[in-house]
Each structure stands twice: as structure tokens, then as C-alpha cells.
Design brief:
Length: 456
């Protein structure tokens, strides 16, 4: 027992010895008066325990995420493995019109699915061709239902409804305008569908009596690139699609009798259309430095060197600051400033900014032992730089001012507070990054604290 108490005393003494008065003028002088910096005790040796965890349960339906981009594509990442993003959505009558007809002697010309790109936005290598398959959903979707990253709707995988029934090869191109005749449109993807899809409606236009009737007959579509063969040398790409755009729709082209003037009818994706993203991650070819931090191995010690973060229901980082209470052993403290910093690991084995762009923003959240999360609003209040969670491309790092949390943890007000770090808007952001842990020789994580003692 005496030996245990002596060991604890040594640990506390070492931590306090490393936290000393220090004139640190490189960070924070624009926030704190110079006198506060000069009089504060500075510590940058408090232990940070971080490791990678799965982030595999996300709501991705529009009623939860809002009208954000929907993702379709596939990536083969030599570090994170294979990522497949696909979409499910249903359709509506154009402008909710009723009792739509095609006129006498209507003859089908073609059927085209168009999906508007979010302009100039993609992830991966757009030069790699993808195979897009389109399937007709066989069960209904509902706008007010909750759908998750793992959710699906049933469809017949043997009945691809692209024109030849084998998919369409495309390259993600969110920058080039598209012409239909002499009319120029914003960048969008065009996939020709089987004529039989349009013929269903020409044969019986009562399916277009109203939007509810349409959705009961034609439940919706599943669009995926999961059948594309990708490898570590043929990375693939993920496209961002704006399903709220008027360009996102199915268009039925037809003419009447001997009048060959082309007419068209759009089946649109309305504001009350159900839509959600499905994500699948295959880690079988991922780095073991990543996968061994997952169950069942749970080798969290690997996080001391490198931690891994990816959006689209992949991974986030768990963070613990276990020894902050030691700062108040000689009396309660007031934290003048505290900054948690994670650096991007620039090792070429991990870093490839040409294909796997570093997330522009990340999100730090509090989490308690019972799993409840809390926003760090008090900490963000003290972020006078406005750079909370944003990527500092000059220093290759992310900064999180957390003075309120550190003070409450050090003074024993918060006894079970931990943190998680994730990609911002991870519901619809496939970006990934590798960060240094506390023992990373070149890119160590740091917690920098300035504090003063205020009493017992």
C-alpha cells in the first residue's frame, strides 16, 4: 500500500513540476492581456489519451440532415479501406399536378435520369471511371421516417434499369456544363433508363393521378456505384449530388402520332420526397494501425501515435484528459486559456492531399460515461479567433479552445467528461485525415493550458 501511495505521489509531482510559469507569447496574446500571460502558470505536458472508434450509426435522411448534398461513388483508400456511398429516393408529380396525361397516340422516345452535381465538389480521383447502377425500389419510403447510414430499401439487384441493364460508365464531372440541344445547363449526370420505365406511364397515366398514387406504384430509385471495381491504385471517386435541384429528375421524352415534335414529362424530386444516403465501409484492406484500434482487438495504445478520422459513418476519435484534476491539488485554479491541438500526420504513407482532401472543419463534442453528448458552447464562447475546429493549413493542425471544460475538470466539477472529435457534417462528408497522437514524434497532440491558482 505504501508503495502504491509513493508511486501516485511521484506521478503528481512530475506533472506539477512540468507546469511552471512561462512567458508563452506565441499563442493567445491577441486574446489575453500581457499581464495575464506573464502571471499565468503554463503547462503543455498534461496527458492526452486518444484512440480511434467506429462512427457507424448516423441518420442520413433529409428530414434530419436538411437539404444537403447526397453522395454516390466508391473509393479504395489504402489507409481507410473501401467506402461505398449510394442513395435512395422517391419521386413526385411535377409541381404536384394531378391527372397528368400524354395526349392521343403518345409514342415513347426515351427516358433519362438526371442528377445535378453540387458544382465543383467531389472527393477522390474524378479521372477514375465508375459504374453507376440504377434499381427500382420495391417498398415505399416516407419523408417523415428516420433512415440511417445502414438503412436500405428492398430492390431486385438482378433488374438494373439503366438502358442496357448493365449500368452506365461515368466519370464524376461537377465542373462542365451540359448541353441539351442548344440549351446550356449546369453540371449534371445523365443516365439513360430502359424505355419500359417510361412505357409504364404511357400505358396507364392513372399512375400519375397525384403524387401519392405515383409513389404507391413507383416506390423510388436506388442509385449506386458499388459494383465498380476499385483498388489501391485505382482510387475511384465520390460525387456530390443536389437532389433539391430542378435538374434532378426522371424525364420521359415522347411524341404524339405523326407529330414528331418532342415533348417531355418530368418526375421530380420534391421538397417532401424521401431521400437518404447509405454508406458501407470495408476495412479488410485498411491499415492495421487503424483496424486494430477497433473491436475486438481494441488496441487503443496505437492511438498514442496515430488516430484516424473519416466521415460518412466511418470513424471518429475518442479523447480523454485523465490527469487534469492534479492541477488543483494545491488549490482550485482559474484557467486563463486552454487549447487542444491535433496535428495532421504529414507522413506520405498517410497524407495525399491530391485525392484525399483534409477536412476543412472538424467538430469536438463532450461525452459522458453514460454516452450522452453535450455541446461545448461555453468553450466556443471564448474562441475569439473564430477558428474553432477549422483546419489551419499553414500549420497543418486543428485548434480547440476548451478553457471552460478544462477548468471544470481540473476543479472536480466534471468528473466523467471526455470528448469525441469527428469530421464536420459527417453525415454527408467523405473526407478523411490521419492525426498524430500524444507520442507522435513529428506531429504530437498537445493540450496547452494557462492558469492561475485562486485558493483552496
Amino acid at each position: 500500500m505504501k508503495l502504491k501511495l509513493f508511486s501516485v505521489f511521484i506521478v503528481i509531482a512530475l506533472i506539477l513540476w512540468s507546469c511552471k510559469k512561462k512567458k508563452e507569447s506565441d499563442i493567445g496574446q491577441n486574446i489575453l492581456p500581457a499581464s495575464d500571460l506573464l502571471n499565468a502558470i503554463y503547462c503543455d505536458t498534461s496527458t492526452i489519451l486518444a484512440y480511434t472508434i467506429l462512427d457507424d450509426t448516423l441518420r442520413t435522411d433529409e428530414s434530419y440532415t436538411g437539404n444537403v448534398a447526397n453522395l454516390v461513388g466508391i473509393l479504395a483508400d489504402p489507409i481507410f479501406g473501401k467506402t461505398d456511398a449510394s442513395i435512395y429516393f422517391n419521386l413526385s408529380n411535377p409541381n404536384n399536378t394531378t391527372d397528368i396525361g400524354f395526349g392521343a397516340s403518345a409514342k415513347l422516345d426515351s427516358v433519362v435520369l438526371t442528377l445535378a452535381y453540387q458544382k465543383n465538389t467531389y472527393y477522390g480521383d474524378p479521372n477514375d471511371a465508375l459504374l453507376f447502377n440504377v434499381y427500382r425500389i420495391t417498398e415505399q419510403m416516407y419523408y417523415d421516417s428516420a433512415y440511417y447510414s445502414y438503412s436500405t430499401r428492398t430492390y431486385n439487384a438482378l433488374e438494373d434499369i439503366t438502358y442496357f441493364g448493365t449500368g452506365q460508365v461515368v466519370k464524376i464531372d461537377p465542373t462542365t456544363n451540359v448541353y441539351e440541344g442548344d440549351t446550356k445547363y449546369a453540371p449534371h449526370l445523365r443516365i439513360r433508363l430502359k424505355n419500359a420505365i417510361g412505357q409504364l406511364f404511357l400505358d396507364d397515366s392513372t399512375h400519375l393521378k397525384n403524387t401519392e398514387t405515383l409513389r404507391q406504384f413507383f416506390n423510388g430509385l436506388h442509385v449506386t456505384a458499388k459494383n465498380t471495381i476499385v483498388s489501391g491504385n485505382d482510387y475511384g471517386a465520390i460525387g456530390y449530388f443536389d437532389l433539391t435541384s430542378p435538374l434532378s429528375k426522371i424525364t420521359i421524352y415522347y411524341h404524339n402520332g405523326t407529330n414528331f415534335t418532342t415533348k417531355k414529362l418530368d418526375l421530380t424530386i420534391a421538397s417532401n420526397s424521401a431521400k437518404f444516403n447509405h454508406y458501407n465501409h470495408d476495412y479488410s484492406a485498411a491499415s492495421p494501425l487503424l483496424t486494430q484500434q477497433f473491436p475486438p482487438t481494441n488496441n487503443t495504445i496505437l492511438g498514442n501515435t496515430t488516430v484516424f478520422m473519416q466521415g460518412t459513418a466511418s470513424t471518429r476519435i475518442k479523447i480523454k484528459l485523465p490527469y487534469l484534476k492534479n492541477l488543483s491539488d494545491s488549490g482550485k485554479i482559474a484557467v486563463n486559456k486552454a487549447e487542444l491541438i491535433f496535428k495532421v500526420d504529414m507522413n506520405p504513407a498517410f497524407y495525399d492531399a491530391t485525392k484525399f482532401f483534409v477536412p476543412a472543419k472538424t467538430a469536438l463534442e463532450g461525452v459522458r460515461l453514460d454516452g450522452t453528448t453535450l455541446a461545448l458552447s461555453l468553450d466556443q464562447y471564448w474562441d475569439l479567433t473564430g477558428m474553432w475546429g477549422y483546419y489551419d493549413a499553414t500549420n497543418y493542425e486543428y485548434h480547440f479552445p476548451i478553457p471552460s471544460s478544462v477548468q471544470r475538470m481540473a476543479n472536480g466539477v466534471e468528473t466523467d467528461l471526455m470528448f469525441t472529435l469527428r469530421v464536420f457534417q459527417h453525415h454527408t462528408n467523405p473526407a478523411r485525415v490521419v492525426l498524430g497522437g500524444k507520442d507522435n514524434a513529428a506531429y504530437p497532440a498537445k493540450l496547452k493550458i494557462w492558469y492561475t491558482r485562486v485558493g483552496k
